[in-house]
Hints:
This protein is mostly helical. The protein has helices spanning 17-33, 36-53, 59-100, 111-117, 130-156, and strands spanning 2-3, 9-10.
Amino acid sequence: MVQDSQGTESCHQHGSDSQYQVVAARRKSFEDRAWQIPAIVLAAQAVLLKAATERDSGHTVCITAGFLTAFLALMAANLLLRQRRNQLADYAWLLEFERVHDGWDIVHVRSRDRASRFGIETPLLARVPPYVVWVAGPALLGALGLVLSIHVIATNKGL
């Protein structure tokens, strides 16, 4: 691998087949794990929001659960967006490798482009990138938890 004058990694003529396999496997692992973070966060947020809305829950429990729900949303967004950045970096590297090396088919293209090449339309709901949906879901529940906490504080004048 070569670095240009700005320190950016490039695979121009020095990338090897084994480097390609390593980067492709790493990118695949990002995709395999992409659903795990939001799934766990959504489950945790559901438990916290249930605790916050129980009739028997005290004000402190409601406030704490609401703020924790919001904090979990921030944590999930941070992890997902970092993972997405890493995935895009590997995608760009793989695509450059495929373009530079003669005899290599270019397989790392956007799935929508790949589908349209064969006349397959992307349904409307599938046009939104999955990472946007997975960041938005926990964010909405986090906002709900934050609103719930603020409401409890405001209506009970504190803890």
